[in-house]
Amino acid sequence: xxxxxxxxxLSKDRHFLQQALRNPKRFxxxxxxxxxxxxxxxxxxxxxxxxxQPHYDNTLPVHERREDIxxxxxxxxxxxxxxxxxxxxxxxxxxxxxxxxxxxxxxxGHTQPRRLAARSVAERIAEELNSDIGSIVGYKVRFxxxxxxxxxxxxxxxxxxxxxTQTDRFLSAYDTIIIDEAHERSLNIDFLLGYLKxxxxxxxxxxxIITSATIDAERFSRHFAPAGVPxxxxxxxxxxxxxxxxxxxxxILESDxxxxxxxxxxxxxxxxxxxxxxxxxxxxxxTPSSLPEHISTHAxxxxxxxxxxxxxxxxxxxxxxxEQIAESDKAFSGAPVLEVSGRTYPVEIRYRPLAxxxxxxxEIDMPDAIVDAADxxxxxxNGDILVFxxxxxxxxxxxxxxxxxxxxxxxxxxxxxxxxxxAEQHKIFHPGGGKRRIVLATNVAETSLTVPGIRYxxxxxxxxxxxxxxxxxxxxxxxxNISQAAARQRAGRCGRxxxxxxxxxxxxxxxxxxxxxxxxxIIRSNxxxxxxxxxxxxxxxxxxxxxxxxxxxxxxxxxxxxxxELGAVDExxxxxxxxxxxxxxxxxGEGRGEGKTPAAAARANFTASQTGPLPNPPPLGxxxxxxxxxxxxxxxxxxxxxxxxxxxxxxxxxxxPIDPKISRMLLAAQKHDCVQEMLVIVSAxxxxxxxERPLEAREAANKAHERFxxxxxxxxxxxxxxxxxxRERERGLSNKQLVQWCHQYFLSHLRMRExxxxxxxxxxxxxxxxxxxxxxxxxxxxxxxxxxxxxxxxDQDLSAxxxxxxxxxxxxxxxxxxxxxxxxxxxxxxxxxGLVANVGLKSPEGHDYxxxxxxxxHLFPASALFKSKPKWVMAAELTETTRLYARDVAGIExxxxxxxxxxxxxxxxxxxxxxxxxxxxxxxxxVTFYGLTVLPRRPVAYGKVAPAEARxxxxxxxxxxxxxxxxxxxxxxxxKLIKDIAALEHKSRKxxxxxxxxxxxxxxxQRLPENYMPSESANSVGRMLESDNPAQPPIPSPRxxxxxxxxxxxxxxxxxxxGLPNQPRPKPQTPQPLADLRxxxxxxxxxxxxxxxxxxxxxxxxxxxxxxxVTEAQFPPHWQNADxxxxxxxxxxxxxxxxxxxxxxxxxxxxxxxxxxxxxxxxGMIREKLQLLIKALPKQIRRICVPVPDFITRFLAANPxxxxxxxxxxxxxxxxxxxxxxxxxxxxxxxWQAFRLPEHSYFNVRVIDDGGQELAMARDLIELQxxxxxxxxxxxxxxxxxxxxxxxxxxxxxxxxxxxxxxxxKQQLTGYLGLQQQKNGSIALRLFDTPEAAAAAxxxxxxxxxxxxxxxxxxxxNKGLPxxxxxxxxxxxxxxxxxxxxxxxxxxxxxxMGEDTxxxxxxxxxxxxxxxxxxxxxxxxxLNRYLLATAQAYSELNSKIGRHPLAHTLRHQLEALIxxxxxxxxxxxxxxxxxxxxxxxxxxxxxxxxxxxxxxAREADVQALLAMWQEKADALQKQNQPLSDGLLGFRWQIEExxxxxxxxxxxxxxxxxxxxxxxxxxxx
Length: 1564
Description:
Layout: H1 11-22, H2 30-49, H3 61-64, H4 66-75, E1 78-83, H5 89-99, E2 107-112, H6 115-128, E3 137-141, E4 144-146, E5 153-157, H7 158-164, E6 174-179, H8 187-199, E7 207-212, H9 217-224, E8 231-232, E9 249-250, H10 256-264, H11 297-301, H12 310-313, H13 322-328, E10 337-340, E11 347-351, H14 366-378, E12 384-388, H15 392-404, E13 412-416, H16 422-429, E14 437-441, E15 454-459, E16 462-469, E17 474-481, H17 484-491, E18 500-504, H18 508-513, H19 528-536, H20 553-566, E19 569-571, H21 598-603, E20 644-646, H22 648-654, H23 660-671, H24 675-685, H25 698-705, H26 715-730, H27 735-744, H28 749-768, H29 798-835, E21 839-842, E22 849-851, E23 856-859, E24 872-880, E25 884-891, H30 895-900, E26 906-915, E27 920-929, E28 932-941, H31 947-960, H32 969-988, H33 997-1007, E29 1011-1012, H34 1016-1028, E30 1035-1036, E31 1043-1044, E32 1049-1050, E33 1065-1066, E34 1072-1073, H35 1077-1090, H36 1099-1102, E35 1118-1121, E36 1124-1131, E37 1140-1146, H37 1155-1158, H38 1163-1175, H39 1179-1182, H40 1188-1197, H41 1206-1218, H42 1229-1234, E38 1244-1248, ...
Parallel strand pairs: 1-7, 1-10, 2-5, 2-6, 3-5, 6-7, 8-9, 11-18, 12-14, 12-15, 13-14, 15-18, 17-24, 23-25, 37-38
Antiparallel strand pairs: 3-4, 16-17, 19-20, 21-22, 21-24, 22-23, 24-25, 26-27, 27-28, 29-34, 30-31, 32-33, 35-36, 36-37, 38-39, 40-43, 41-42, 42-43
């Protein structure tokens, strides 16, 4: 078939027709191909005929250069046009292209950076072409396509054009593309420029026009120019644009031939353009009509066009390398630069810096400077004012300052920013009224948007710029100085309706010092979305992509880290890797089924970015969701050896027109069965917040938004908004009513519409991906379950009904709360997959949060969680302004982090040990996430973490230390054998009997294998268990990160493989560490089949030498006394509390133990104690005992009394051995007894209760008796009810035995009976545990019982003695009542008992009463006489003491003689001497003055004796022993000594001196 002229077809059909014409049979034959051609050709002719004729009013500067522009476009594939703002570039360039005949084969695509600009520019061009919107001129913005099939010009955002590259890889729908406002250098623009550079050599028919008022022309020209070929320039100087260097400037080609010759030089490259000459036509095809008259002659110079070369575009061909691309770039000689100077109205620039030149002047605040500038502009004439400010907060401050200004309060103040509602936008772009408008805008009005009526501009020189920090992993939103280009753009917003004035609130020098152009977005943004899109388009390595300005490698690496974290990309397998290397599953898990070597898996374990999803992601159209081509079409400019490859999950994520992190959340929602909710949330996060907060109604808006607030999660607030809006729609409200409802609750109806449209698109994509069915994709508002009354309430009374209603309400709320909590976890676990790097833990102070990588952030004040501040939160994004703020936060559980991102957490193990309870070696595991402690401690099996170390711990803990429940014969045998030998070691107090633990460890270590490989028989058992239980559940992973299959079996994809029986396949055997009882017992069962006594220890294995001297006689198992046998236990461990021998006794016998008997320990230990006691003596005495062992043998052979203390008997033996009993005087018995021997030289007494629980333990028996003596006495009588009686009034108890035998449990005890007076005065018969306590109580009890029989006599006695009144007045310090009771007790004790033995039967009791009745009067009279004399002597002495030098000494002596209770305590024989002692004190006072030194010397002797007596008395009381009669008499002899020393004339009954008393003390 002859080749037709493909230039006369639609550009979108040329690719197909070129292939079909070469091989018609492949496409249905020549006739079918001809029909296709005819159809396309007719459409082309029809569009050519309908091509509109543009008209110009020649009022714009661009009209003056129209011919130059047309010629440049006609003769060049890429043209860069620079011109001042307001020169008419935006609206006139599409018309010029129409004049050149463009827009016939395809559309003239005209991009704008903002949707609002695309709509407004489309309306202006359509108005100039006298057509309706959508016919000749259409526009397409997000979710809105107003372009008909007959349209020639299509306005759109750059994001829409970028999205169309996924379905139209060659952009064949367009024959011309105009990229307006290219200076903004957004991610979309930079990506499009790089894409077009690769595409242009393959589309010679495509024209690209790049235009802006403040473009960096030289950089753009270099971008499209091949190496060594200079750029061209069309006449004129570059004013606003940067002038290219002279060597980079050429001339426009003067002839068409030179251009075509340059193109035809491409014949040796991979692109071979086919040129059809003028006049050529295919046989049988119609010729095109002549071009319309209004088509420019520039278009007629070269009507032919280059079409696709099929060889170059064949999918079978590999991607071309960089050399091929560079070679093909020679197809065009770069992009010529055209400058359009001038504008409609001039703009005057005025500089008003905030800082004054005068140092004395303070700096002006920004709001005040704006007010001053507005006042200055208002004086120039009418016209609206546009003020550029960094952000919404500054807009509020400036608006407040302007409203407070007296000159500006009548002006209309209007805000303009991205979150503005439709109504507020309408006020700005459709002005009405006669007031001056002051529009306060962010940089959203810097380009594209033309606010009507603006004549003046106030430029603060500041803008809030978002920069991504690859180091901190956060989005930083800081206020920065704008560039010179941005400043020119702002100035160009005025001067469009009249001459304009721009006031810059900074100095001219400051302007000159600023950078010429704004940093492109690609070098200050996270590149994850760009990398993912390039991977989806198969565009190769991002570092090799021809960006206008290549991003820094740090940002590229960071982008890959984010995608690796999300599982969107993966590393390619190494080409030289070992084919037999073991592949491990990907650490990311979901969607990453490709295998990895461990090294590759480690490299892939990158950290996650801490930034949240972009609040305003690049607007993408529906075309992006249609998927990517599976063929390799040569569009990629990188080689196939790229390091990264797109995973299955990444391919799914690339089809979603949202941020990669949000798409990851959506894909995770399928796993957690919350796709409906996640579709709503992720679509909400992809648009601007639909909630509006107008400046004048902020409080009302916040109150209205409370309806949607969730106290736990800001994400759930989006669901609440969605449900509320959906309920209103289901009510059948009209569109107007919905708008009113949105206005009522301060919601943007436009953004709600965008939200729903994006949601519908995501639903369609999710359905195509198989994430959800179409029927289950749309979320329906949740119906609130109503509380139903109980069925039983009808038969109940009012009170019961109220209680039942309260119970029903409680259950109803619990049911709702339970359902909400279940859904809450599902939703937020899906969210955390994409936002895992944005988690935070509340700091100890509670003011901020500690985030990943050591960051600190605060909750945004508008968050519902700002006040509650949960412990763990997750944020949609972290943005740094004045602080690092977390926006859209929710409370989470830290366990979700590990469960959803196990590849990002790190595990730290510490404190490994053997656990007897778990039966395995465990360690404490701490889980951290980028420095945050997710889980501080949990026990995990240590065998899988460190097998060798776990095996050693198992041997030492379970086998050596025997801390295990092993039911095996060897274990019981070894345990008993070690216990027996350890007992010998403890008894002999030698460390070298039992071998040490290292020897035991070596024994087991040599016999246990390093690992256990399960045998085939064990596998068969496992398979049998699996067949019995097909639903074998997985076992928990030791790392806590999920579940693992059963250790002995895995299943294939199908239950039955082809040609094999239906049975499970055994898992390949892997060695298992011997670190738990289950594995050990399995191994032992197999090992004992070969050697039954493999692990049995022998006595020779355990003992280092024999211990024949250790016998039961030397180390008895029990200690015996009159109350029975008590268990002894031995332990040899110095410094241990149980070192030595421990005596375990029950509490009831504690008071019955004799401290002296316990000093003798056991026969096997007494020799060592005696040796230590002898060593404690002075050397001259110790020498007598040499040789000490022989002396000790002789001492023990003499059978010393083992119920008496050791040291007195040992001293007697030493003196006897020396043959000199005077040696006893040289032994300081008190110091010797105070000497403390080693702890094991004393019994360790352990007191237990009836249940065997330890009550106390000490080596000092006296201390234990003081601590528990009273409790022991009470416990001793617990079971003595058969012997005791209460409330005795007469002797009706028969004869009282002194002691009785009775049983307490298995213990035979001896008790002592006696009468005891109770606290309430009654007399009772009680059982005592010691004879001393029984005797003391029985004496007082007998006196009290006799007093009951002598009531009348005692009654008379209570009335007092004859001289009681006088005595009481003299001894008034004792108290009358206390003195009367004391005298009565003294009389009764002397008269009723005296020196008699207390009665123990009725006969003796009655005889004692008779004696008492007769003695009572005499005792009463004698005591009255003695007491009166004592009182008189006391009163006389007390009146004379005063301030005498001996006052302190004498008062201390008086307190020891006359004190409360002294009458009963003073022995009867001492009463006659008591007044003498007081008189002696008066004599001493009289004799003191002549010789005070003698008095002091004698007092010192007395005090020495008194100190010795007091020390002895205290020691006996501490030992619960009564003071002997000799010791009590010695105390009174000290008083007689005072009489002898200080008042010898009063005389003493017997001779007394210091020397005599010392001799007496030695006897005591």
